[in-house]
Fold these 2 entries.
Entry 1:
Amino acid sequence: RLAKESPRKIPIPPGHTAQSLEVALRDLAEILGQQWVKFNDVPLIDGDYHAVPLSHDSYHILDPDDLVPSAVCWPADTEDVVKTVKWANKWKVPIWPISVGRNLGYGGSAPRVRGSLVLDLGRRMDRILSVDTENAVCLIEPGVQYVTLYEHLQEIGVGNDLWVDVPDLPGGSVMGNALERGVGYTPYGDHWAHHIGLEVVTPTGEVIRTGMGSMEGSECWQLFPYGYGPHQDGIFSQSNYGIVTKMGMELLPNPGGVRVFMAAFPRREDLYQAIEIIRPLMIKKIIGNVPMFRLGLQDASLYKTRDDFELDERGIVKPDSLKKVIEELKTGEWVFYAVVYGPDEITQAKYEYVKKQLGQINGTKFYQREDVPPEHYLHNYAHYTTGIPTWRELDRMKWVPNASHMFFAPVSANSGQDAERQSNMCKKRMEEYGFNCLDTFFIGTRAMHHVISFMYNRKDAEERTRALACIRALIDDCAKLGIGEYRTHLALQDQVAKTYNWNDGAIMKFNEKIKDALDPNGILQPGRSGIWPKEYRGKGFEL
Ligand code: ADP
C-alpha cells in the first residue's frame, strides 16, 4: 500500500521524505516478509486494556497524533531483530522496540520520535523457552505476559510450587515490566532485581549474552547473575542501548503458607507514625513482601466513581463526603495491605507482632479475608500476593469518563517525614490544578515508590493540558527538594532526566558517551529516558 493512497498520512521520521521512507519500508518488507511490516495508516482508535493499539498511545496526554510510528513490524526471532537493526542503520530510520506495548500510563506502545518504526517483539517472540523447576527460574521471550507465564506453570503442574510476581494488571510483558523496573506485591516485587541473565541485540546488530551466558557451554546463565568482569545488565534497563530478546526470571517458591491482612487508619496524620512503625518491619524482613500503603480515597476509587462523591467547584472530593464513603466501605483515611508468609505457627506470631506495633496508632482496625465481603479488594490482594493474576485494577478506570491514567512516581525514603512531606505537597499542588490526589506507597526494604495516579478524561483537551501542566509542576516542586521519579511517561522523560543533575549533570554526559559509542547512527529509541543521540541533540526534539 502506498502512503499517498492511505486513509491517514503516515508520519515521516527526521531525515526522510515520504518517498525515501516508503522505499526503506519496502526493503524491510522484503527482508522480514510482506505480512510482517505494516504502515501505520489506520485511524487512531484508543481501544481498551484488552485491545491496546499499536498506532499511538491509547492514554495519550499530548495530541493523539503526536507520538506515532510510521509503521510496525513483527520479527520472528533474534535473527530477525538483528536484520531489522541492520536495516535501520542502513536507512537511518529510528526504531522503537516494545514487548507487549501496554505500558499504560507511561506512553503505551508509542515511540518518542514521530515516524519511528515500532518493533512489536511480543507478537511472534512469545515463547517460554525453559522452566527450571528445581532452581525456580525460567527463560522467556519479550511477548510472555504475566498471565501466560502463570497459565503455563499451571499447565505443566508446578503452579502451586512456583509463583510469578504479578503486577497490578497481568497483561503486560514480564520482560518489558522488568526492563522498566516495575513493581509487584510478593517478596519478588522488585522485578528488575529478580531477572537473571539477558540476551541483547546491540544498536549495531551484534548479539550478546550477559553474565554466565557470555561463556560458551555454561549452564549457569539463569543461576548466577554476574559472570566475569563488568556487569552490563544495568545499562539495558530504562535505556536505549539494546533490544532484549531473552531474559531469565526467578520464580518465587511457595513459602508454605500466607496470612493476608489490612489495617485501616482513621486520620490523615496517621501516615507519619504508621510509616515510622513499618520501617523496621521492612528492614528486618518481618514483613516479607512489597506491602502497600494507600490513601482511603484511592482505595474507594475501586468501588466508586468521582461523581459518587460530593465535589467542590474544582472537582475535589469534599472531606465530609469522603468520611461517609470510608464508613460505608469500612476503610480508613489510609489503608495498609500486607502479608506475612510461612507455615501457620510463623505467620500467626508475625501477624500478632505487626498488629501490636501498628495497634499503637489509636483507632487502627485490622481485617483479614473472613472479615470482609466478597467484593472487597482484600481478596484480590490475596491473589496478588500469591502470584495469581487479577484484573481488578481495571475497575478504577470508571473514575471519570474516558479515564486515562498517568503516574507521578517519586521515590520516598521509608520515613514518616518524607512520606508526609511528599503526600501533602502533591495533594496541595494537584488540588490547585483540579485533580484529586490518589496516592499509593509501594514499600520496599529501604525506600518506597510513591505512585500517584492522575486520572484524566483524555477526550477533553483542556483537562489533558491541565494534567500535563500539573505533573510538570510536581516534577519541579519535588526536584527542588531533591526528590526524583523512578519512571515517567514518554512526554516527561526529558524533564525528569534533567532533574538528575548532580555535578553539572554528570550522569547524562556519561549516558550520552555510552549512547554515541554503542549507537553511532542514533537509530535505537532516540530520546528514551531523555538520552538523545548526537544527531538529535540541541535540535528541538526535547519536550
Ligand atoms: P508492557 O509490559 O507494559 O506491555 P512494553 O512492552 O510496552 O510494556 O515495554 C515498555 C517499554 O520498555 C517500551 O516502550 C520500550 O521502551 C521498553 N522495552 C520493552 N521491551 C523491550 C525490549 N525487549 N528491549 C528493549 N526495550 C524494551
Note: The chain has four domains: 3-120, 128-253, 258-492, 500-530.
Entry 2:
Amino acid sequence: MDCRICGGTVTEFLDLGRQPSANRFVPPGRAAEEPLFPLAVGACGGCTMVQLTTEVPRELKYHDEYPYRASGSALHREHFARAARDLLRTELTGPDPFVVEVGCNDGVMLGTIADAGVRHLGVDPAAEVAALAAARGVRVLTDWFEARTAAAVRAVHGPADVVFGANTICHLPYLGSVLAGVDTLLTADGVFVFEEPYLGTIVERTAFDQIYDEHVFYFTVRSVRELARRFGFELVDVAPTPLHGGELRYTLARPGRRRPSPAVEQWLDRERATGLAHPRTVERFAEAVRRVRTDLVATLERLAAEGRRVVGYGAPGKSTTVTNYCGIGPALLPFICDSTPAKQGRVVPGARIPIAPPEAFRAPYPDFALLFAWNHAEEIMAKERDFAERGGRWIVYVPRVQVL
Ligand code: JHZ
Ligand code: ZN
C-alpha cells in the first residue's frame, strides 16, 4: 500500500489477523453482527512512518457510545491536570489565551483549563463522552478535527495559542488535513502539542496490544519530524510521558519561531542507534509477538488443565487485540472485570468475553488474574492487594509472559 504521509511504499511486518474495532464493546446478543477487518502494520520506505495497512471507517470507531473514559484512572487524572497546569504556566499566558483540544474525551485535561477560566474548546466526535466533558464545564464541539472544523473554529473563536491532543493524533489517517487545520488555527507563535504511543516503547516492551484499529500511526521522533516538515511545521521539542507504558509528547511550531530543544537531536540519535523502524528491528518485534502468543495460550491452557480459575482484569482497547490475536475466548477466560460502567454487561468485541464490574473479582477471588490493563499495574495492584495477600497471582504478558 501507499504511505498516507508521503505516498512511499509501506511494507507489512506484522499481521494480527482479522479483528473487530477494538472499542466496540457490544451487548452479547449483538456480538455476531460486528464486522471484522484485517489488522496489520507496515513501515514506509520513504518517510519511515509505521502505520496500519487497512483502515476501519471512522464512524464505526468514534460512535456516540464510544466507551473509553480518559478520567478512568488516577494516573490519567493526575497526568492531565499537570499537563493543563503546564500549558497555563508556559503557553497560555497572554491577555486572552485560547486552547483547542483534538479529542477531549471526558474533559480530563480541559477541565483544569475551564476551572482556571481560560478560553478553550474541545473537538470530539463521540457524543456520550463529549456530554461528560460538557457536564464538567468544558466547552465542546461534537465533530471530527480536520481542516474544515479548524476553519469553522477560527471563524467563531479566533486564533488559538495551543492545539493539544493526547492519544488522538495517531488516530487520524488524514494528518495532512489535521496539520492544515492546525495551520489555520494557530497564532504565529502558537504550538501544536501532542502525546501519543511511541513505537520505541511498543518494540522494546513487545507491547503489540497497542496495535488496533484506532491507532492508525505508530510514531517515532524521526517520522514525526518528517511529518512536521512535510506540512510546514518544525518539531521543536520531545519529552517522555508515563502513560500507556511510556509515550512521547511532541511540540510543533512554525519553522524558525522556536529554538528547537536539544532533546530532539538526542531522541533522533537514540533512534538511529537502535535502528528503530528498520526492517530487522520490526521483524524481530514480530517474532517476539508470536512468542508472547504461544506462551500466553500455553499458560492459560495449563492452568485450565490444572483446574485453576483465571479471570481478566481491565478491558482496555488493548484487550481486544490480545484476545482476538491469541484466540482467547470465554472457555479460557470466563470474564474480565472493568471499572468502566459503559463496558460492563457487554462483551469484548470478537472474543465475546463478558465484562463484569470490579465487584465480580472478589466474589470469590480467582486463583489467577490476567492483567490486560498492565499500564495501570501499580494502581490496580495497590487496589487489589488483598487478592495477592490471599495467594492470588497476577499474569502479565508485557514485556513477556510471566506469572508474578
Ligand atoms: P487504558 C485508550 O486505550 C483509548 P486503552 C484510546 N484508544 C487510546 O488511544 C489509548 O488509550 C492510548 C480499566 N481499569 O487506559 C479502565 C479498571 O478496570 O489502558 C479501562 O477500561 N480498574 C483513546 O483502552 C482500562 O482498565 C482500574 O483500577 O488501552 C484501562 O484502559 C483502572 C486503573 C483501570 O486505555
Ligand atoms: Zn511515508
Note: The longest strand covers residues 186-197.
